[in-house]
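Exercise: predict the fold of this chain.
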Amino acid sequence: MSELDQALRRLGTLPAPSGLATIDDAVLAGLAASRREAAAGSRLMGFAAALALVVGVAGGGLAGGEPATAQPISPFAPDNPLAPSTLLDVHP
């Protein structure tokens, strides 16, 4: 028989520790605390999302002004700013 088997047999003959009778209460209290923390975390995330939405809407509303409009651009227009003739032109 190996040393491990002998050690396990000796351990099996020992009486159970008295603290095991009260371990259930501590485990269940820890689970309840964990659930409370998870619920508080989800409420906090909801509050943060709502606050971000309010700040975004308020910031967008305060920006005001006229919205930018896109101007049509043609590759053959003489005033095309991206034409090769204007890009290669030397500017003083």
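Check your answer against the key: The chain has three helices and no strands.
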